Structure formats: C-alpha cells, structure tokens
Amino acid sequence: MRVRVIVWMCVLGIMSSCGCSEKKTVDWSGYDVGKVEFRNLSPETEGARLYARIVPNPEQFIQECARQVLNTLYFSPQDSIPKVELITYELKSYDGVSAKSGNPPAIMITYSTDWIEKSYKGDLELLIRENRGVLWHELTHAYQLEPQGIGSYGTNKTFWAFIEGMADAVRYVNGGFTLDDRPKGGNYMDGYRTTGFFLAWLMQTKDSDFLRKFNRSTLHVKPWSFQGAIRYSLGEGYDVDRLWEEYMSAMGDK
Ligand SMILES: [Zn+2]
How far is the CA of 136 from the centre of ligand 1 (A)? Predict the structure, then answer.
C-alpha cells in the first residue's frame, strides 16, 4: 500500500521549509504542467465511449496525472525540469497501446481505442487503473531527464533502459501496477517493468528519494551509467550488480 503515499503527497500540499528531519511534502498545484489539447480521432469506437465514461474531463485528468509524475521525479518545482508547454493527447483507433512523440516544449501522446476495448473485461475500476498507468508511463517521458554522453534512445541500450525503466517505475509506485505485474528474473538492463520494479524496490528499501535522485543523476553523471547513477543516488559503497542480486534474492527469484 506504500505506493499510494506518493500519489497523495501532492494533494496534501503542505510546504515545509524547516531544516529539520520532518518529511517534506511539496505543493505542485501551482506548477504549470502545460496546456492539454485533447483530440478524439475515433469517436465512433467503443473504446472512445469507454474512455468518456472513465475520464469525464480529459484536460483536468491529464494535468492531475502530470503533477503526480512530477512529484515522483522531482523534489520541487525549483528543480531543473524540462518545460512542457503543450501536451496534445489523441485517442485513436490503431493496433497498439500508446506512444509519446515530440520533445518539450510540445509533446504528443496517442492512446489506442483498440487497446481500451481489449483491456475492458467488464470492470471499470481495472480500466481506470490501466488508463492511469499507461498515462503515468507516457507522461514520465514528457518530464524525465535524459542520460548524457552515451548517445540516444535509438542508439544506446543503457539510455533506452533508463528511459523505459523509469517510466514503468513511476507507473508502479503511483499504483499503476501491482506486484503481480512484476516480471521474474532478467536484468536491470532489460528496460520497462524489469528495470522499473527494480528501481521502485531501491526506492522502497534504500532511499525514499531514490527515483528523484536517479532522475537527477543525468545532470551530474557523464557519461551516464547505471553504476554511476546508483552511486550518485545511494552512495559510493553501492554496486548495481550486487543490488540486483540482492533484489533477486529478496523477490525469491533465485
Ligand atoms: Zn515508454
């Protein structure tokens, strides 16, 4: 249940500026996450009708999810955050799930009405969780920082594993996955959920600010690496391969 704590922190909105050890909660309500332009390109589909049932006000909903992502990735609005000015969000019938394109200041997210139909098994609560989860993942791509000095998403596996691992970690810690969704085994370089659940475990067991520090590591660790970023975030005594082994043991995967 601890995964829910992050979600509500921003709602509480109490700014603590004392230097004591009291846990700080940050108010993101005044942060401009960007304008949302919602486009329904397949209004005739059952998926679009289902979407309208679970999301009555897309603009407000997407901005609320964006603030949850920001609160997961950053310490405060004063951090170095890519400035997103426009989020174009499209509902469209196609064979796929969802995708983000473009870069700040203008990004686009497409969500498949076919996928909405496929993921609806008669339980609207599950459909809501799936929709939020996918959105948290894609919005992470809008606001996350990117590794430096190691190429790009398309050319470097470490870069790719960081980007997709962080997006699934943000999804998980906000409640968009359960432990049942965790893949067994693998390696932290596998990206998506395999990397994401590992990063979330580091946050849950080593440092509650881990995801924020790991995101921030891209500004300081050049060329970026998992090892360098783990040491930046947790301390020089840590080793990513040893942590992975510890994680595998803790999960009962080996
Ligand atoms: Zn992704």
Answer: 10
